[in-house]
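Narrative of activities, Objective 1.

The group set out to show that a structural description can be obtained from nothing but a protein's sequence at a throughput compatible with the screening campaign. Below is one input-output pair from the validation batch, recorded exactly as produced.
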Amino acid sequence: MKHLISKEGFEKFKAEWEQLKYVERPAMINQVQAAAAEGDRSENAAYTYGRMRVREIDRRLRELDRILDGAKVVENMATADGSIRFGATIKMQDTKTRREKVYQIVGDKEIDPLQGRISMKSPVGEALMGKKQGEQVQVKAPRGTITYEIMEVSYNS
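Output recorded for this entry:
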């Protein structure tokens, strides 16, 4: 099943895959071989760590293969009517506290709440989809419903 991903997210995962496959994994294999050549493997910490790290790298490579193979790259293009959709960066303000937040709507595989990258399936993402600058949205949060005013909508290319 295909999943949506931004062009930037796809490039980031691809670069990570290449780094692991062509740099880190070969270096770790060489380290394991050198440690194995030293003799007794049962008490060789470098050998044990190296094998464990190679397994971690292989696991992440398989995960990245699934992400990249199942990805549908979506270009960030503004809509004619200015409505919010996948790829939008939204600047909004809490109507009570006047605190501003900035979010970007991204695919499920590339969310990073600390960086403001949220899924369109998240409560905030669902509330924002299809809305426009100047509109208000209500988001249900653990501390109650929060009302935000959409201050700005942009699409980075």
